Amino acid sequence: MNTESHSWRRSFMPVVENIPEVRRGAQLVLDSWSVPEDASETVVLILSELAANAVRHARRPGRTFDTSLAYDGGKAVEIEVGDGSPHLPVLKSYDPEATSGRGLILVDALADAWEVRRREFGKAVWVRVLV
């Protein structure tokens, strides 16, 4: 088993067109780290949801949103998406007829742990997925 730790960090402009780039970059990195496919799919899905939330809810003029992945080489992948908005995300129920609003419910269901962390400018959502 590979026990070497790895990390990846990128910043993106908060536009919808960058969400596929977030997914592609993360998938390439996870493949290069030999993260098992089921865990890799979960990580990419969670990262996509958090990036979409950052684009939708946290646009600030001249600011980017940050993404990072860290892999301990065997037990867990940690995901973090940070943005410049001071507004904290809230896990809430949704209207079954709604076309959006399920992102954090999905994160909560798929993650082994997650939390919101305040930053000097904004906040970050941190997630752990066990491999």
Description of the structure:
With 131 residues, this protein is of the alpha+beta class. The protein contains three helices and five strands. It has a five-stranded antiparallel sheet with strand order 1-2-3-5-4, covered by helices on one side. Helix 1 (19-32) runs antiparallel to helix 2 and helix 2 (37-57) runs antiparallel to helix 3 (103-110). The longest helix has 21 residues, at 37-57. The two termini are 12 Å apart. The model has no long low-confidence stretch (mean pLDDT 90).
The spatial strand order of the largest sheet comes to 1-2-3-5-4
Shape estimate: globular
**How is the main sheet built?**
5 strands, antiparallel
Distance between the termini: 12 Å
Supply the number of helical segments: 3
Q: Helix/strand/pairing class, anyone?
A: alpha+beta
Mean pLDDT value: 90
What percent of residues are in strands?
25-35%
Annotate the secondary structure layout.
Elements: E1 6-12, H1 19-32, H2 37-57, E2 65-71, E3 76-83, H3 103-110, E4 113-118, E5 123-130
Antiparallel strand pairs: 1-2, 2-3, 3-5, 4-5
Helix pairs in contact: 1-2, 2-3
